[in-house]
UniProtKB/TrEMBL annotation:
GO terms for molecular function: ATP binding; glutamate-tRNA ligase activity; zinc ion binding. It comes from Pleionea mediterranea. GO terms for biological process: glutamyl-tRNA aminoacylation; tRNA modification. The lineage of its organism: Bacteria, Pseudomonadati, Pseudomonadota, Gammaproteobacteria, Oceanospirillales. This is Glutamyl-Q tRNA(Asp) synthetase. InterPro entries: Glu-Q_tRNA(Asp)_Synthase, Glu/Gln-tRNA-synth, Glu/Gln-tRNA-synth_Ib_cat-dom, GluQ/Sye, Rossmann-like_a/b/a_fold. One of its GO terms (cellular component) is cytosol. Keywords: Aminoacyl-tRNA synthetase, ATP-binding, Ligase, Metal-binding, Nucleotide-binding, Protein biosynthesis, Zinc.
Amino acid sequence: MNSNPQPSAPSNLPYIGRFAPSPTGRLHFGSLVAAVASFVDAKAHQGRWLVRIEDLDPPREVPGAASDILHTLEAFKLHWDGDVIYQSDRSARYQSAIQQLQQQQLIYGCRCTRKQIRQSGGVYLNVCRDQQWPITNDSAIRVKQSDHPSDFADPIMGALQESPDKQREDFIIRRRDGLFAYQLAVVCDDIDQGISCVVRGADLLDSTPKQLRLFQLFNHTPPEYQHIPLAVNQNGDKLSKQNYAPAILPGQAQDQLFQALCFLGQKPPAELKTDSCEQMLRWAIDHWQRSAIPKTPAINV
C-alpha cells in the first residue's frame, strides 16, 4: 500500500452521481445497498443522481429486466434526475473513443484466447503488444498500460494499489466478439454525463485503476470513487443474479430500505421502520455519514 496516495478526484466539482445496473435480472439486496448509498450520498451533497442501464452484453440480458429495475427503483422512491441512458444506444460514441486511442497508438489488436492466458498463470503478459497485429473485427483490442503505480485513495476503503502484475497488464476495451468492454463504456459515459462521484460495490475495486488509466488517456478529470462493502451470503459469495440472490420486493420496500441503511452503518432509529420510504430517505439524507460506512470489503447478510 502507498501511504500517501492521491485522491481520485478533486472535491470542488458539482456533485453528479449515478447508479448503473446491468439488466441481467431483478434487483437484489446488494443492488439496493448500492442504489441507496449512491442516491443518499448525492442528495446529502445537494447533487444530482443519474441512472444508466449497462446493457452491453446481450447474451446475459434478461428480457424485461431493464424496465423491472426502473419500476423497482420507483417503488423504493429512489427517483433519478434526467433521462435514463442505455449503453446499447451509444456504440458510435465508444467506437469514436477507440479511434481516438488508435490515432495516438495507445491500443493494439490481440489474438490471445482465455485458455492461453490461463496457461500463463491467469495474467495476460502483453505478448501481442509488439506483434503489431492489425486491429480487425475478430480481434480483441487492448490498451497499453502505464509503468507508473496506479494507487488511489478511497474515502471508505482507504489507500489502495494494484498488484505489480495487474499494473503491467494491458486490458481489453473491445472483446473478440465485437462487444465493447465495460471499462471503455463506463469511462465514456462518466465523461459525457459529468459524473463527479461514483459510489459502488467493492467488487469493482479492481476496475478502478483501469478506469483511472482511461481517464488519463482521454485527458479528463476522473470522478471520486467510493467502494462500499459487498453483501455476501453464508458461503462468502457476493449476492448476485448469477447465484440466484432473491429479488427485493416492492411490497416489502420499507423493511428492505431500513435494512439497507443498517447495512451501511447509518443506525436509523427503530421508529423509522414504520415510516414511508420517502420519510426514511429524508432521514437518511439529513443524517448521512460516510464515515459510518463499514470499512470492510464484505458483510454477511
